[in-house]
Amino acid sequence: MNLVVGVGLRANTPYAELSALVDSALKEAPGDVQLIVTVTSKEAEPALHRLADDLNAELRAIPPNELAEQTPPNPSEHVERFTGTPSVAEAAVLAAGAQLILPKRRSANATVAVGRLPAPAYQPADREVVHRVIAERRDVRRGFLNLPIDNDLLTRVLESAHRAPSVGLSQPWDFLVIRDLATRRKVHDLATAQRDAFAASLPDDRRAKFDGLKIEAILDTPVNIAVICDPGRGGRHVLGRHADPRTTWFSAAIAIQNLWLAARAEGLGVGWVSFFEPAEVADVLDLPAHIELVGYLCVGYVEEFAAAPELVRSGWAKRRPLEWAIHHEEWGRREASIVEDAIQAGHNAVQAVGQRVRLIVGGDKADLQQADALVIDLTPTKPQADFGVLWRPARTPAEAVEFGVEIARDLALQGVGQLVVQLADPSEEATALARGLEVGASACGLTHSRA
Fold first, then answer.
1. What pTM does this model have?
2. CA angle, 55 as apex, 50 and 57 as ends, to 5°?
3. CB 110 within 8 A of CB 104
4. 3 state SS of 312
5. d(Cα 137, Cα 159) in Å, to the nearest integer?
6. Short-list 219, 209, 199, 373, CA closest to 275
7. Residue 211, exposed/middle/buried by CB under 10 A (0-12, 13-18, 19+)?
8. Which of 89, 12, 8, 4 is nearest to 45 (CA)?
C-alpha cells in the first residue's frame, strides 16, 4: 500500500520524537511511504528532512490556505491560530489527494496522520501522449500509401488488440489477416453493392453529398483485418456474461479500439468498413457457421492523419458536444436544463443549411414511403428495429419535450437544415414532443414548420 504521512510539528522537534511517532503510526497502518507532507514554513525542519531521507520519501509543503480548504475530522482552534489552518497533519494528507486511514496521533511536539494514495498516474508527458493518440485516431479512407507493413509492427498492433479487456477473460476475438488481392476484391464488390443500395435510399440532396464520400479502402491497403468473434468461447460459466450476453461482442469491439489506437501510435491508418452484410463477408472468408464478423478493417501507411474526421470536414456530420452526453445520478439531470439552453441558444442561432426531414410524431412504418420521412413512435411497446422509426416512449410531457429537443439537435449534427413536423397523434406527450422539436430546431438554426 502506498502511503502519505502528514506531519505537523513545532520548531526544532527532536528527530527521535518524530521518528518514534511515525513508527508507531505505521504499525497501525503499514505500507510504503511515498510522500511526507507538511505546511509551508515547516519544510526546512531538520527532523522532517531526515525522516524523508530515512523513509526514502518525497517531502512536500502545502500553503496554509490550501490546507484550510480541507475538512479534517479533528480540527484544532489552537493550530489555526498559529498556522492559519485548523489542521496540518490530517489536512495535509487530504490535500495530497489521499484517503485518510489513520487520524492524527500526537506526541509532545508533533502530530502525524496517515493516508492511502491511489495507484500512481502517468507523468504529465506520458499522459499527454495517451490523450493525443486518442484525439488523433482517425477512421481513414483516403491517402493510403503503397508500402508494406513489417510483420513485427503488425504483431505489436495485434498484441495490443489482444490485451483488450473481455467479459470473464473469455477473449472471444480472433484476427483474420487478409493480404490476398482476389479475396479483397470479392469483399470490395460486396461493399460497392451496399454503397449503391444506401445511396439509392437517400433523399436527393443527401445523396449528392454522399456521392463525394469514400466509404472504404479495401483495395488501397496492403492488409485487411477481419475481427471475428466466437460467442460461445469459454463455455457455459463465463464470469459476468450470463446476465448480458452482449458483453461478448462488446469485448470484441474494445479489441478493435485497442488495435486502432496502437496502429495510430505506430503511424498506421485504419478504416472500419461496414457497407456489407456480415454473413456475405463470412461466406467470402469461409468462416465456420458459429463464428461472427464484428469488424472489417483496412490497414496501411497514410500520407497524413487529418486534423478532423472526414465526415466533419465534408460537412456530413458534426461531433456531439460532451455536455449533451453527461447526466448526473438519473437520466436527464444535466448541468443545465436542455430545454432552457435550447431556448436561449435559439435567440442567437445562425441559419443552418442542409437536408430536409419530415418528422411524423406518432406515425407508423406505413409513413416511410418517402426517403425524407422519419417516424417518432411514442408507444410503450418497443417496435421492430427500423432506422426510419425513432422509439421515444416519453413517460411525461416534460420528458417528451426533452426528447424532441434532443432529436432536433442530433439531426442537426447529421446535416439536417429543415424540419417539417407532422403531428399524427393528438396526445399530450406527442404535442409536447412536437414542441420540443421546434425548440431544438430553433436552437440549432434549423428552419421548421408544421405540416
1. 0.83
2. 90
3. no
4. helix
5. 18
6. 199
7. exposed
8. 12
DSSP string, 391-433: E---SSHHHHHHHHHHHHHHHHHTTEEEEEEEE---SHHHHHH
Using only C-alpha atoms, the chain has a radius of gyration, in whole angstroms, of 30
Directed axis angle between helix 247-265 and helix 124-136, to 10°? Answer: 110
Closest CA to 74 of 84, 62, 89: 89
* Contacts of 383-389 spanning 24+ positions with Cβ under 8 A: 389/364, 389/365
* Each residue's pLDDT expressed in tens, for the chain with a length of 451 residues: 899 999 999 999 999 999 999 999 999 999 999 999 999 988 899 999 999 999 999 999 999 999 999 999 999 888 888 788 899 999 999 999 999 999 999 999 999 999 999 988 899 999 999 999 999 999 999 999 999 999 999 999 999 999 999 999 999 999 999 999 999 999 999 999 999 888 888 888 788 888 888 889 999 999 999 999 999 999 988 888 989 999 999 999 999 999 999 999 999 999 999 998 999 999 999 999 999 999 999 999 999 999 898 888 888 888 888 988 999 999 888 888 888 888 888 777 777 778 899 999 998 888 888 888 999 999 999 998 888 999 999 999 999 999 999 999 999 998 899 999 999 999 999 999 999 999 999 999 999 999 8
Q: C-alpha distances in angstroms, 374 versus 194, 229, 386, 388, 409?
A: 21, 33, 10, 5, 15
Which residue's entry shows cell 425548440? 439
- Write the burial class of residue 46 (CB in 10 Å: 0-12 exposed, 13-18 middle, 19+ buried): exposed
The beta strand positions in 292-446, using DSSP E, are 292-301, 355-361, 373-377, 389-391, 416-423
